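cache lookup: miss for this entity combination. No prior model stored, computing from scratch. Input as submitted by user K.M.:
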Amino acid sequence: MKTIHVETTINGDATEFLCAPDESLLDVLRDRLGLTGAKEGCGTGDCGACSVTVDGRLVCSCLMLGAEAQDAQIETIEGMADGETLHPLQRVFLEEAALQCGVCTPGILVAAKALLEKNPDPTDTEVRYWLAGNLCRCTGYDKIIKAVQTAAAEMRGA
Amino acid sequence: MKYVKPESFEVASQLLQNESGTSRILAGGTDVLVQLKAEMVEPDLMVDLKHLPGMQDITAENGGYRIGAAVPGAVVGEHDGVKAMWPGVVEGLELIGSTQVQGRATMAGNLCNGSPAADSVPALVTAGAMARVHGPDGARDVPVADIPQGPGKTNLSKGEFITSIFLPARPDHAGDAYLRFIPRTEMDIAVSSAAVSLVLDAAGTCRQAHVAVGAVAPTVRLVEKAGKALEGSQLDSDAIAAMKTAVEAACNPIDDKRGTIEFRTKTAAVLAERAARIAYSRAGGQS
């Protein structure tokens, strides 16, 4: 299979890579670029563990080809902290123990950040529906919803 | 597999027509990539059309809207004009998948995937939406209702693909709605579904009614008799009963663990009634 040369921007850095035509963006991130924060849970868009944003839109990186990333602006969990300073969502998830095994956490953080950028003051129901595509088999979701709300309040300056 | 971004619709059509093996068209990819992963299909050619003119645009046209075939659900859902004019179409589209899936999935893809349970299709059918199809002989406009042929199959020929979907203008006193039954609250496939589009006169009497059902036949089905049953009424109980009888008569569902024939048939009629009442209220009628 002929490899494809792709130029893109990941977490603000101009990046180029070669990939197979049928290789998912998730596989490119993990196996070619060493960005292993996005996880493969299902590989079919059901679990959200591979969530990233592409041109500001929340997507499953398993449901996109690496080749489709040409000229895109991609944000992954690796770009969420500012140097050593964690994003409020990351910090609150730790403080409030909104995770157990942690496999779903990068996807949930990326998805929650996208939500709060669009809607800084969501209801619990809005958080639950927004995160319906992020499966967590440990927490029962309650602590996740609470942590998102705590971080949202902090980010609103409340 | 070869991945190609052709420079025009004409070249795309030629590529697809000349491909002797299996080809797939890539818009949002939320069905195609799942099929790839599951090894349900191993395409020799993947044609990405997202970059071509108009594919990512929503444009006002003749009082309605033309929606490019690569416009994702999330973008349609943020478009105030489309939402105000065709709320039932938008609510059907937005029921597909998760927030992440909405970031990629398209109406044209939902249509071409050929699922009888496709959530965006019933309301497109009741809206009288037209698909613009590009092919070896140029472009033609086809009613959305004529695109699906059966589960996983469309009536498009080799070398043809959809480039946009046109939602026509609306007169005053018009409304539409879409409802589906799923055993959960989110992220599921319709067990049965119904869309209704109504145009009322100033007194609140239905002058035009379209009813379509999903997941109860090999394709989404426009039930003409059900629409006729509502016309001339203000959704009184006789008209609703006649509409539901027509819907049930049009159902020919499969029987599986997600829903029996009886259940799918009955719920399709109940959903059609509820969707009709929502559409009526959106059209400004008081019932």
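stored under new cache key. The longest strand of chain B covers residues 192-200.
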